[in-house]
Amino acid sequence: MPFFQEEGHLSRQRVLELVNRAAAAARENICRSPKRVLLLPPDITRAHSGAGWITEEFYRIFSQEAQVEVIPTLGQHVPHTPEQNRWMFGTIPLEHIHVHDWRDGVTKVGTISADFVKEKSGGKADWELPIMLNSKLMEEKWDLIINVGHIVPHEVLGFANHNKNYFIGLAGKETICASHMMAACCGIENNLGRLITPLRACYNKAEQDFLGHLPDMYFQVVMAYDSAGQLGHTGVYVGNDLETYLAGARASMQQNITIVPPLKKVVAVMQGDEFYSTWVANKAIYRTRMAMADGGELLIIAPGLKRFGEQPDVDQLIRKYGYCGTDNVMALWRREAMLQELEHGTAHLMHGSSEDRFQITYAPGHLSKAEMESVNFGYMDLNEAVKRYDPERMKNGFNTMPDGEEVYFISTPSAGLWATKEKMQRQEDQ
Question: How far apart, in Å, are the Cα atoms of 215 and each of 39, 58, 88, 117, 273?
Fold first, then answer.
């Protein structure tokens, strides 16, 4: 059930007060005196949400009476370095922060049937979803499990967070691969900003069928830009059921989806201390594609970019096949063993293509022009891009450059979704 929620412009201090209120609600509703507590925050790509210092506060509260462990919900992302953990989680001792091993550190807990997948996807996918989850989560005894996260439009699940922490963030390879292919077959623009996508429906069933025994709860935040262009917290949603997710997702739908006319030129920044691969930096593509005009250009300034995939095998896959469009990828998938083995990567290639409808140009910090063009992206020198479109001087929204070029600037694409009225209406009508 929802324990409580609070909306409005929330300061960091107020969010911390709500963390303490959530801890009290956990004792009242789940376990009066927990001795073993598990905290499940997102990974570093969501650091701007405050998830790190929120998790640190939960650790401070419960470590006074309990053994507290932390597992960042990495999915198949690269594990944090010790320095990144210190930067994100502050004073939490490093020995209490554990790496999720999506290949060898998981346990099978059940299966969502192919019939259910086919029904929810409208026949676009017809395979079962094996549910493989982190062994530490499933095989050890916990008195309290707290999921921390940021509800925001998402390309696979409609909105991020809630049980995404389990079924992607702490999932095994088989689950992640089958899930991402299902979502890709349903179409990225049919997923973005939808409360219950076909894959979310499968995850909701998996949570109900296989995780009902867990003593867990969710602490979810929503963020939005204020009148000064600063990203801040606008809602906190705490509870242990689907309605807790829906309340936050409805708020995100209202606050994080920006309706714009078709945009001919978009400049987006993917922060250098969070986004190191196109696997995560391509959020700039996902969150703007429904706003891009045919023949337009999306320029992504990504000073931290140094690889394509989060894992070496997926990096190799992206370099081999490139972002070549859904039809091409699906045709290759039917005959190429590598694409069948790494289906989450196959889905990623589909998500990251503009389908030749608009140009995607990267200004990367550490990848060459030849490398970017080999995967079907355009290239712009980073220094040239920053000089012309200085993120420190641009304002979110429309900007007119000295030579008259009109540019739509987005400082944090991962915090929202931009779409034309027609694209959103088309999705709602489906």
Answer: 12, 16, 26, 27, 34
